[in-house]
Specification:
6-blade_b-propeller_TolB-like, 35% strand, mainly beta, 416 residues, Neuraminidase, four-stranded antiparallel β-sheet, 25 strands, Glc/Sorbosone_DH, globular
């Protein structure tokens, strides 16, 4: 194994009481009513781990340390149903997707408009539906969605472009830029997108619970893809750009289970993904890197063996170790964003990672490509399952909940 990431243990503040569950339950289980408010605590997951790690007994909550601001949470919108993602339009206004209804909403001050009732052929099942949304940084009236699609019984996950009208009252569906991301039952559907300042479109996909997908370079599943945000075409400097296979040309990294978060930090892409019943991961992505998920049963066949390590260093070739791992149990890490701005104090320059099962926000500091001690603010353990987090232009964090009913869009700011 190539030791490409941190290999020392971390002290990470986790909420273990919110993480209990069956060892066979997928990390992204169906939404459930919000649990009683958990208290922040600390434990010791590992960084760079390739196998299970065992957290210590649950410590007591700690006060906000010096250098880290107290946080305030404002509810911008409620009465939402499974809002999957949020992104900000230039000049203000927030685009929100709802996973099952397929609605694309524009929230602008006190106004809420339905821009679209959903993509054509929307298919929602299990963890798949209308998922990620990103605004094109080069065109304020254009955005992309990633969603499940059905056409005559055949299903896939695809990336589609949309255009806003001049008055921002309606969104018109355009071309599908990337199609053919396999979808079976709807399990492990991904799908997280991020557009870099240079116009690179990164798409994190799930393996569709098909054992051979993550390491099959002709499959778009269990990958992070890299394409031109304007066309969906593979970029010419992709690691497998010389392949004769169109899908392989899009592959940036492989060997993933179910990518749920992406963030670009100083030109480096980071991902968050779900582990089976141990070892959610945050990964520092390297072009062409193998991240070691290989759930093909021993002896081959068409099954799906979730008992294998998240990063299996017994595989052929080099595997990239996780930069951070939850250990046991999983937290169901989800959306992720870079936190910028001096007002964020000790949180600035690190990653904010939403969690579903743990019902909290992890703040992971970064130092020269390594992950340091994480923190869980108590105020972000009071809203149930957290799906997505995005930083707005004014520095606030925008957070969606995923509790199944009466969901919220939150605005999180450091207290001045």
């Amino acid at each position: 194994m190539r030791a490409a990431a941190v290999s020392t243990s971390l002290l990470v503040l986790l909420t273990l009481s919110a993480c209990s569950g069956s060892g066979t339950t997928p990390a992204d289980d169906p939404p459930a009513p919000a649990a009683p408010t958990p208290a922040p605590s600390s434990a010791t997951p590992t960084a760079g781990a390739t196998g299970p790690s065992t957290p210590s007994a649950t410590p007591t909550a700690e006060p906000t340390p010096e250098g880290f601001p107290e946080l305030e949470v404002e509810v911008l919108a409620d009465d939402l149903t499974l809002p999957w993602d949020v992104d900000e339009l230039a000049g203000g206004g927030l685009l929100v997707t709802e996973k099952e209804s397929g609605r694309i909403l524009l929230l602008d001050g006190d106004q809420r408009r339905e821009l679209s009732g959903g993509p054509s052929g929307l298919w929602s099942s299990g963890e798949t539906g209308l998922m990620s949304i990103v605004v094109d940084p080069s065109d304020e009236d254009r955005f992309l969605t990633c969603h499940g699609h059905s056409d005559g019984g055949a299903t896939d996950v695809r990336v589609v472009e949309w255009t806003l009208d001049e008055d921002r009252t309606q969104a018109t569906e355009g071309d599908a830029l990337i199609t053919g991301i396999e979808s079976t039952t709807g399990r492990h559907g991904g799908c997280r997108m991020e557009v870099s300042p240079d116009g690179e479109l990164f798409v994190g996909t799930g393996d569709a619970a098909v054992g051979t997908n993550p390491r099959d370079l002709t499959s778009l599943n269990g990958k992070v893809l890299r394409a031109d945000a304007g066309t969906g075409d593979p970029l010419p400097d992709n690691p497998f750009a010389d392949s004769d296979d169109a899908a392989t040309q899009l592959v940036w990294t492989y060997g993933h289970r179910n990518v749920q978060g992406l963030a670009v930090v100083d030109g480096t892409v980071w991902s968050a993904e779900h582990g089976p019943d141990v070892d959610d991961e945050v990964n520092r992505l390297e072009a062409g890197g193998d991240y070691g998920w290989d759930p093909v049963p021993a002896g081959g066949g068409g099954g799906y063996d979730e008992s294998v390590p998240m990063t299996d260093d017994d595989l052929d070739g080099d595997q990239v170790a996780a930069a951070w791992s939850s250990g046991d149990p999983t937290l169901a890490t989800s959306g992720m964003t870079l936190v910028e701005g001096a007002e964020w104090g000790g949180y600035a320059g690190g990653l904010a990672v939403a969690t579903l099962k743990a019902q909290q926000m992890l703040f992971l500091p970064l130092d020269d490509g390594e992950v340091g001690e994480a923190r869980v603010p108590e105020v972000l353990t009071e809203h149930g399952r957290l799906r997505s987090v995005t930083q707005a232009a004014d520095g606030a964090l925008l957070v969606t909940t995923s509790n199944g009913s009466d969901d919220e869009l939150l605005r999180v700011t450091p207290r001045s």
